Records
---
Amino acid sequence: MRFPRIGWPGRAVLDWLRPPRRQRIYARLWLGRLYFWGGAVGVGLLAVLFARLSTLLGSWQMEAATAHRWLPFVCLPLGGAALVALTRRFFPGTEGSGIPQAIAGLKLGADPRVSRLLSLRIIAGKIMLGVSAIGCGFSMGREGPSVQIGASLMQILHQHLPRSLKIPRGHMLIAGAAAGIAAAFNTPLAGVVFAIEEMSRSVEAKLSGLVITAIVLAGVCSRIFLGGGHYFGRVVIFASSRDLVLSVIFAALLCGLTGGLFARLQIMAACRWQGPCARFRSAHPCLFAALCGLLVAGLAAGCDGAVFGSGYVQTRALLEGGAELPWFYGLFKFLATLFSQLSGLPGGIFAPSLAIGAGLGHAVENLSSAAPAMLLVLCMTGYLAAVTQAPITAFVIVMEMVDGYSQIIALMSVALLSSMVSRMLAPPLYHTLARRFVDKALAGPAAGEGNA
């Protein structure tokens, strides 16, 4: 059956009803922006959910461990073994921080095997297992996992984007990862810097207004649901010029060496660990995780449970001058975080690194004539910069956390010097581990070519 051709009056009506080409382009452009911004809001909400659950389970764990001193010696080994079994069986790719996986996902491009590192399965596993690890008492944070969660959500959205929108996949992953940092720490500026320095390592994308807006939207969601203000409150930091210079040099050397050592141990354990202990971990990963949990419980018993969780409570108490922590808290937190990472559980090192830095500053505060809070903030910045070797991100994060804009030169200096010292001991942590995840993803069959 042939339909009659539309004559002049009908064609004129259709032309009048059809939007002009410019309007169609604008509609498509705004549709893409709504996809982008909706994903940013989703990242912010997931980061808030992660934060709320982590805080809730962490506080319950601290109360239970205080009431029953024997409980961590049961929960940490059994919980570690069970969570590693779940990670390896159902959620491979969620282990560790999550930032290396996000970087690896960016490097894999359109390869279908990227779903092993960024997917809905990863989001569910990262939140469930990460919260459970903190609830058991492992020394882990939620900021690195928020990066992988944000990148995974943007990866999912990109797969369902209309082809006509032509939004680069790399832009979406960078925005999702940076939005995760911005929402987790409530630091939008740090999210922008993280996108440039750690994720893209260049300004090739020029961080379009779309990406920056996505990061800011995630930060706004965090501020709405978690409250305004700075992460560690407003900390008064001051020092004379001479004391400040000496403190910067001292903190840079101390934190650069310890942070570089931590990064070196992490890389060796992931890439080049050999010997009986390495073979035992490879053959019996669940039992190895149980032993790591037992070691963390022993460290916690030596300092009244201060090494449990992310260390936020202890760090804030140190900054406010009301903490009664032993001088060796920083060392114990260092070891507890190292054992937690070696266990193979999902969890980040950003917040624990800040706690370790504060603990190191607390241990040597009598050796410096600067104000204790000033030395603590410098050590927090220096240690985070040394571990991540992302000095700009480190000093911007700490600056936004403590309202340290008045000491921006000192924070910048200690971050750059610590990073330089760390590089003498270890290559960049996240990018080195990212190459390992890329190799593992490419070693298996592509999606649809086997059980993977």
Note: The radius of gyration is 24 Å.
---
Amino acid sequence: MRTHFPGRRGNSRWRRLVVHLRLAVGADAGPLRRPVDRSRSRALLAAWLAVVVAAAGAGAAALFMYWSAQADAARAAARLHRVPAVVRSEPQQADLSASGAPAGGYRALATWTYPAGHTVTEQAAVPSSAGPGSQVRVWVDDAGRAAGGPRSTSDIVATTGFVVLGGWAAVALTCAVGYSVRRSRLQRRAEEEWQTDWAVVEPTWTGRAGGRNGSDA
């Protein structure tokens, strides 16, 4: 029964990486190393480097997008107000395009007073359990009109992560496809070179050099 040690597998990956790195920079110039081997290692390292750089760029982009979205949310929240209101109708499932209600939320006719002395009656986002006459709190803007609530941190994180990870995945997939194409071309070149070399070596190797068929007769 063969026992596998996790550390050995990790070390093997590092050893292969070192081998490819030495080949790529020309430090491993043994008699069995061919130019095509060096090109293959360079293609592999270039693909991995592009993925790592893309990951670093995605991290920086994520931070920038998060801070920017947080700043926008803070500016928007400064113009929003949570005020008491009285529900006037039965809540209805909100249209996704309706302002003031999140996806899957409910809206109903409600009445509130904001700014002071200014009474407004219009559709606003309310809990699904709020019936006519219920006291709720709704989000309004500086003019007293119904508005959507400020973006939450979880929403900002989810949106940022989706956009950034999607972009990084696209870059990684492009690198993988590019490396696969390059490797296929290098493999064909290696086979062509091998056939060329074998055409030179094969007569001597099989004893057919100089027109002989392997016997002295």
Note: The helical segments are 6-25, 35-77, 153-206.
---
Amino acid sequence: MRFNNFLMRLGLILAIGISLLLSWKIWTNNSHYERQTDSQTTQKTPTRNADHQLADTFLPTQVLWRQTDQSELLYNSKENIVTQLKKTLKKTQIAAFKKVKLNETRYGQQLKTDKTVTLLYPDDVTYGILKEVFSYQGTNRGGIKNNATFNRIQITLGSKTADLWLLNDRTKVGYQAELTGFSKQKIKELVNASDVHLKVEEQFLNHKPLMYVAANQQLAPYSYLVNQQPENYYISSLLNQQNTDSINTKEQGDSAIYTDGTDSEQYKRLTIDHKTGEISFIKYEDVAVPKTTTKQFETSFDALLKTGNSLAGMRYYSHDEKTDTTTFRTYVEGFPVFYQTNFGSVKVQLLPTGQRVDFSNYSLQVPVPAEDHQVTLDSTESVLNQLTQNGFLLEDVDNIQVGYEWTKESDNDQVIDLNPTYFIQYQGTWRSLSALLALKTELTEGS
């Protein structure tokens, strides 16, 4: 009897000891335990972007129509105009290109050619990318190389023929070719079907043509449900998919830092900010930075795909040759979304030691009913006047454009509001008009 009691007590003590040991291991390595549990229910290889092609992300972002000395930004909420123009262009025949170097005056005149439709890129792309986007095969069609850059595809509709111009706002270089089989009737149909006609005018600021919005133009605000993936989703897709035991975890402030590997050629680090949803992924590998801009675009797009986030509405936005960095942004109704992150929606930097990808855990899902009213925009001219009146130097304005400001609703963190406003790139940094003016106020008050 006494021996049985002894065994029972001994068993109870051992059970309590094992329980305490297991609890200690869970408490001291909680993130690792969660990874193992969640990884069983998370797909190791995201498939949501399997059908998304480079041509979808590198489509032009806006369509400009000019007739009788008036330019309009067009958008159709029911039918994607850019996609329709792409289909029309794919049916055409392009003659050999002729390179044309224009001065600023002549370039401005080309932009104001009557009866033209222009597909706009927010920054330079290459002819190599254009061939992928529009499925142009075979030769370079004479007079133009794959690494030639441009940010406008302008189609001039003459009485008998149509001409294709690839124009670069920065270098003022154009490539001209005759188009055969282009449907002018299709252009009329697209213009008439558009439900947004934003009156604009191209004017030069600091030797660069910018799109000046006329007074009293209106845009609609929007609201969207947002999606947020669990952290384990990115751990399994970006770090070691075969062996999560090799992943180390530590908390630092509001962020969790996950690392995999110790070899400098295979080391990976994933940093997730719990508070802002911003994510940074760094991968070290013995791969040289691609020498051509086209290859850099393709490599950056591959990195964008590997994040596993939804790419609906995601478009190429800019490329920095000095840092080998390509930025992608979400577009809504033909306008870019700002403040989804501090650095843009997704920023891919190709490094001599690998690559770095900065992006957001949040992505737009489905629109929800918003207030049924239009927001009236000030003219671009009046915005620039407001800047000068507040002490800003126009020579430091790199760019100015209308976009949507991403703000969370105070009573529902699953819904974000998108409100149209002006964004100014001042001394290299993008800020909304209100944020830029507030910054000036802070500097003045602090002086």
Note: The chain is about 25% helix and 40% strand.
